Amino acid sequence: MDIIYDNKTIEKQCTNYTQAQKKFNKQVAEKLHSTINFIYNTTCLMDIKNMPMYKLHALKGDRKGTYAIDLGRRLGYRLIIVPLDDSMNRWDTTDENKIFKSTKIILALEVTNHYE
C-alpha cells in the first residue's frame, strides 16, 4: 500500500525516526515507524483491519471520513488517515467493507494523542 502525506511535518515524523523521537518519545517513535513499515507491506486497508493491535476504526463528528490506527493502546497515540480511491480522491461511499478491500493509497494527516 502507498502512503501520501498531508504536509512536510507529518512526512518527516513518519519517515525520519530522529524527527519522530524529537516530537514524541522513543516508544511512540518506534511504534509509529513500525506501523508505517507494516502499512507499506500490506495490500489494502483490510490487512490492517484484520490486525486487532492496530484497532483501525472510523472517526465521528468533525473527523467524519477519517480513520485512526492505534499506535499502542497504552500509549494513547494514533495515526489519523484518509483512505483514497484509485483516483486519489476520498471515497464517496460509506460501505466500509468496500473501502477496506479496495483502498491501496492512504493520506496520512497527523499523529495525535487521543487523550490530550
Specify the helix fraction band.
Answer: 25-40%
Q: Count helical runs.
A: 5
Shape annotation: globular
- The share of residues in extended strands comes to 15-25%
Query: What do the pLDDT scores average to?
Result: 93
The helix-strand sequence is EHHHHEEEHE
Number of strands: 5
Structural class call reads alpha+beta
As laid out across the biggest beta sheet, the strand order is 1-5-4-3-2
Largest sheet: 5 strands, mixed
Rounded to the nearest angstrom, the distance between the terminal CA atoms is 30 Å
Low-pLDDT parts are none
Radius of gyration: 13 Å
Structure description:
This protein is of the alpha+beta class. Helices cover 36% and strands 23% of the residues. It has 5 helices and 5 strands; from the N terminus they run βααααβββαβ. The protein is globular, with a radius of gyration of 13 Å. The mean pLDDT is 93.
